[in-house]
Design goal:
It is a single chain. By secondary structure, the protein is α/β, with parallel strands linked by helices. It folds into two domains: 5-89, no CATH class; 93-280, 3-Layer(aba) Sandwich (Trna Endonuclease, Chain: A, domain 1), CATH 3.40.1350. It has nine helices and eight strands. The chain has helices at 12-25, 40-49, 66-89, 93-107, 127-139, 196-219, 232-238, 240-251, 263-280, and strands spanning 28-29, 34-35, 154-157, 160-164, 171-173, 181-187, 224-230, 257-260. It has a four-stranded mixed β-sheet with strand order 5-6-7-8, sandwiched between helices. It has a two-stranded antiparallel ribbon with strand order 1-2. β3 (154-157) and β4 (160-164) form a beta hairpin. α4 (93-107) runs parallel beside α5 and α7 (232-238) crosses α8. The protein starts with 11 loop residues before the first helix and ends with a helix.
């Protein structure tokens, strides 16, 4: 999914409020497994309880200001998109395996099919990563792809380095040198707890997005940035608050698009065709 145009290019003050209020009110309802849509009363009480002036959100007539209306509208949008669009697309292991097997038989790929990092009976194909790889291969024409860069992403101009990023990413198209797109994949089908390793993945993506944003602003170099995540149990049952943060990061402009579970099958072919057109236009 792409960002909703109504909530892009908003000031940092907006995101300061979104993150603070989400923390104080809570991101989701544990009992019903849904993402919260905070009410005006909950927002007002959270701010007053912590000593903040609420007039910038709710005016003297106790009606929301324009800024307050945008806050309320965004919370409603974030809850609706996660509850109704994202949750059904997050796959359990069995669905991911069936989807992979179906597309493998159809496409007969030659690209790398990676294994997960589990041991024993949990060791198997990394299904989301494998889906990403075979869909890229099927839609990239004659262009190559670095499905597993083992080096830092870098950008050059006139045979000189202009940026080297801080991290290795999960994939780069067509290579880790001057890519038109990079991506991170976070699949956790066998995870039973939402540990720090899972949470750290969000902040790694944020770092990549900040470096890409700086590159775009100062060097006028545009490289697309994608995050792909899956595992219904890990992300929905345990990590709904982090799904909220992913939606926030997307709208802050640090990710071009997030693909949730089966959305990889729905969206990635068209995305890759767009990368090909970008390369042909260079």
């Amino acid at each position: 999914m792409k960002a909703n145009k109504n909530y892009v290019n908003l000031p940092q003050e907006f995101w300061a409020n979104v993150k603070y209020l989400s923390q104080k009110i809570g991101y989701s309802d544990r009992n019903s497994l849904i993402v919260k849509n905070p009410s005006e009363t909950e927002i007002e009480e959270a701010l007053k309880k912590n000593g903040f002036d609420v007039s910038y959100l709710f005016g003297g007539n106790n009606r929301p200001t324009e800024f307050g209306e945008t806050i309320l509208s965004y919370f409603k949008y974030r809850a609706n998109i996660l509850n109704s669009y994202v949750e059904p697309r997050l796959m359990v292991l069995e669905r991911a395996k069936e989807t992979y097997n179906l597309l493998y038989r159809k496409l007969q790929p030659k690209c790398p099919i990676p294994m997960n990092k589990q041991k024993g009976e949990k060791k198997s194909i990394a299904y989301l990563t494998a889906l990403v790889n075979l869909l890229i291969e099927a839609n990239s024409g004659d262009f190559s792809c670095d499905y597993d860069p083992r080096e830092l992403t870098l950008f050059t101009r006139n045979d000189q380095l202009i940026r080297t990023f801080s991290r290795r990413v999960d994939g780069a198209f067509p290579s880790a040198k001057n890519p038109v797109a990079i991506w991170e994949i976070k699949e956790y089908y066998y995870t039973t707890t939402f540990g720090s390793r899972v949470a750290d993945g969000i902040y790694e993506t944020l770092l990549d997005g900040m470096e890409l944003s700086e590159l775009r602003e100062t060097q006028k170099v545009n490289c697309k940035h994608y995050l792909m995540v899956d595992s219904h149990f890990t992300w929905w049952n345990l990590g709904r608050s982090y799904l909220c943060r992913i939606i926030d990061i997307l709208h802050m402009g640090y990710i071009d698009e997030v693909l949730f579970g089966y959305e990889v099958v729905e969206r990635l072919p068209d995305i890759v065709k767009g990368w090909v057109e970008d390369l042909k236009g260079q």
